[in-house]
Automatic annotation (TrEMBL):
GO terms for cellular component: plasma membrane. It comes from the Eukaryota. It comes from Salvia splendens (Scarlet sage). This is High-affinity nitrate transporter. Keywords: Cell membrane, Membrane, Nitrate assimilation, Signal, Transmembrane, Transmembrane helix. Belongs to the NAR2 family. It holds the Pfam family NAR2. The chain crosses the membrane at residues 173-192. GO terms for molecular function: nitrate transmembrane transporter activity. One of its GO terms (biological process) is nitrate assimilation. Residues 1-22 form the signal peptide. Involved in nitrate transport.
Amino acid sequence: MAINRAIVATVLLSCLAASCYAITFSSLQRTLDLDASVKAGEVLKAGEGKITVSWKVNTTYPAGTESSYKTVKVQLCYAPVSQKDRGWRKTVDLLKKDKTCQHTIVERPYSASDNSVTYTVKRDVPTATYFIRAYVYNAAGEQVGYGQTTNAEKSANLFSVEAVTGRHVSLDIASVCFSAFSVVSLFGFFFMEKRKAKASN
Ligand SMILES: *[C@@H]1O[C@H](CO)[C@@H](O)[C@H](O)[C@H]1NC(C)=O
């Protein structure tokens, strides 16, 4: 009996703990206005392309809306066209399971004045179509608002990143081929020498 009660209590407690983090995207308000220098349809090269992003609380929200904002995190997020057939980029309303936004542009304490950043697209950002989203977090680390550069359907203001990895992959393939060739020819010469030695004995 006591054990049963302990189990029930444990289950209840863990549900409570889980619900603390059960924040959904649809429950958040779009309180931030996000402004980015990248134009719709622009193609940025990974490792070179630069984006300047700035954010501020939309003035239609009452003053003090940002009083609970402790941190802001701005990210590159996959547009629907680059999520198709890719489960690892899937949009899930439950934010801890959402995989839409995977590349961080900046994460810093929220401040109404220190609200802009210039970011160079990292080399490990894959070729895809993106938009930019920012989340604001409270002191407990929970998302309490967001802003994004696109409309709700994610059909406007999308841009692309072109990765540089293609060049690296072909270089890697070439170097693997050359080392395989040198190993093979080394053995080839070795056996030829052995044969010659045998024949002359
Ligand atoms: C501020 O929010 C309102 C209501 O959601 C919206 O219509 C408006 O476009 C927003 N302002 C900016 C600059 O995005």
